[in-house]
Design a protein that fits this description.
Blueprint: H1 11-19, H2 39-49, H3 71-79, H4 99-109, H5 132-140, H6 160-171
């Protein structure tokens, strides 16, 4: 992508998500790394990760369109409990996903595992109560870090570069690096 410079902190992650079919470009040669990721985009990405399973029915949201490019993904995400709406019949398909929302969505996608709280972020008190366990989990598993100055920026919009990095970290968190040069001698007597 012409807008992903070699050596950028997110370049390897963009290559990973593109090569694995999780995210595509915003144009033939562009990725738009600084553009916010919408809730519909994230639902679609996780739907793809899950193999795009067949869905049936309709969602109950008043702000989603039947037959839209995200319709099956939103239906899957809400039926599986990975994502929820805002209440009042709203999903917010075109709303930017916030950092605390993506932490919560991935945590739910992983089955809501327990995680021990680590060092608090400087803005820990700004993290919504629904996201506290999720933020602990993403931090403990090195899926998400702060943005500098030990701030998590929970209500900050997650850019496409950040989402690519978060997804790569999530998808590879259980993969162990092969041992390099370690050899064990077993002697039988």
């Amino acid at each position: 992508f012409s807008d992903v410079p070699d050596g950028a902190w997110y370049a390897d992650a963009v290559e990973y998500v593109y090569d694995n079919g999780l995210m595509s470009g915003t144009g033939a040669t562009t990725f738009s790394p600084d553009t916010a990721t919408s809730r519909a985009m994230l639902a679609t990405i996780l739907y793809r990760v899950s193999g795009s399973p067949a869905v049936s029915g309709r969602d109950s949201f008043t702000d989603t369109d039947d037959g839209a490019w995200y319709a099956d993904a939103v239906l899957w995400a809400t039926q599986s409990g990975v994502m929820a709406g805002y209440g009042g019949g709203l999903f917010g398909a075109n709303d930017p996903v916030t950092r605390e929302q993506i932490a919560t969505i991935l945590w739910r996608y992983a089955g809501s595992p327990a995680a021990e709280g680590g060092q608090d972020f400087a803005d820990e008190s700004r993290i919504a109560s629904y996201a506290v366990d999720a933020v602990d989990w993403v931090r403990a598993n090195s899926i998400m870090n702060g943005i500098g100055g030990n701030h998590f920026d929970p209500q900050g919009n997650a850019t496409r570069a950040q989402v690519a990095t978060i997804l790569r970290n999530y998808m590879t968190m259980d993969q162990e690096e092969p041992a390099q040069g370690n050899r064990i001698l077993v002697a039988y007597f």
